[in-house]
Amino acid sequence: MTEPRMDTDLIIAGGGLAGATLALALARVVPELRVTVVESFPLSPDALPDDYQPSYDARSTALAWGSRLIFEELGLWAALSEHATPIRNIHVSDRGRFGATRLDAADHGQPALGYVADNRWMGLCLMRSLLETPVSWQAPAEVVGMTPIVGGVKVSIRKEGEEQTLTGQCLVVADGGRSGLREQLGFVTRTEDYGQNALIANVSTSDSHGYTAFERFTDSGPMALLPHGSPVRAENQSALVWTLTDSALEHILSLSDDEKCRQLQERFGWRLGRFTRIGQCNHYPLKLVTVDEAVRPGVALVGNAAHALHPVAGQGFNLALRGLVTLVEQFRKAVDAGVSIGDLSVLGEYQRLHRQDWQQTVQFSDSLIRVFGQSLPPLAAARDAGLVGLDLVPGAKRWFARKAMGTGGRKPVISAAESLQESEHHDR
């Protein structure tokens, strides 16, 4: 019996950074697939600005060196780099103690360890590139349900107050996990509440950042300051991620901007001189969210829908990006073999290949929180010794640098012109 022809091949729930990147990668690597993106925000080519004017309060994402390599393969890095501030040095320290370690891109033969790019700029670059592909969009709309059918899935979509359906071989959930679609589809999550919040803002300092990212661990939680602003001139603006308890967050938010800067000065110190300005403050609770089984026949979770990490090490989007590339590789192989992209053998292989990466990345970021979240003197002394040792032992420092640069795992291949040979995930 001939299976009915599907409306599309792949349905992506969510057109944010993860969903849009997946759609672009598929258009580049598996152009035979018909891809439909369902996004809750209205999208229109006419709404895309001709030029980009950076905002002081723009939210940003840390991109590891490995992520740059992926975007280069997608043909997107030339555009992204126009407003991507390089991270040439990383300074890790423990407030009030002597332990510290430093990473320098030059020691690894690279121009940068990573980059900081505004989310809006990344989204704009993705949308401009996607306009040149045959990817279809349903926006504004949202996926509200899914039913397995022979050969694929039937997805329910709510658009303009009415429900309609789309059939396809596979549904990829890339909506970040906040819509409730993941839970509605029966995926079981494990959540660990850190009892902390991340306060996000851009700040200005009297001294230039010198393209240095600072990771500062304090007795009340870690904070990070990432170089932000011009990609060609070291300026005085940094992107702040400040970890605070509920009560501390409430207190900080009640202060004037000048008082916020004074509090930040007291916690961070004077490595960047005086804090002179703090922009709009956003915040969200910090939780480690993982899904043990992120696939089932016809459905796969990607990005934050599959795993949400503490932002302390800037690993979240970079881990998601590597997962997207792994999924694209498996879709390419499936199409070449004449297998449905929603087949469990295809999605299960994606999960197997990506699992070790996310397990190691979760362990890396989570251990930083647990080790540096302890204020007992013996543990604090051990941390100091560890940071000093990390700074002095080349092998340990290279391992730490590979984690920070996102180059410690299996190398993804996304170019359609290259052979898709499977390699085992390992640290070299």
UniProtKB/TrEMBL annotation:
InterPro entries: FAD-bd, FAD/NAD-bd_sf, UbiH/COQ6, UbiH/COQ6_monooxygenase. Residues 7-333 form the FAD-binding domain. It holds the Pfam family FAD_binding_3. The keyword Flavoprotein applies. Keywords: FAD, Flavoprotein, Monooxygenase, Oxidoreductase. One of its GO terms (molecular function) is 2-octaprenyl-6-methoxyphenol hydroxylase activity. Its cofactor is FAD. PANTHER family: 2-OCTAPRENYL-6-METHOXYPHENOL HYDROXYLASE, UBIQUINONE BIOSYNTHESIS MONOOXYGENASE COQ6, MITOCHONDRIAL. This is 2-octaprenyl-6-methoxyphenyl hydroxylase. It comes from Marinobacter vinifirmus. The lineage of its organism: Bacteria, Pseudomonadati, Pseudomonadota, Gammaproteobacteria, Pseudomonadales.
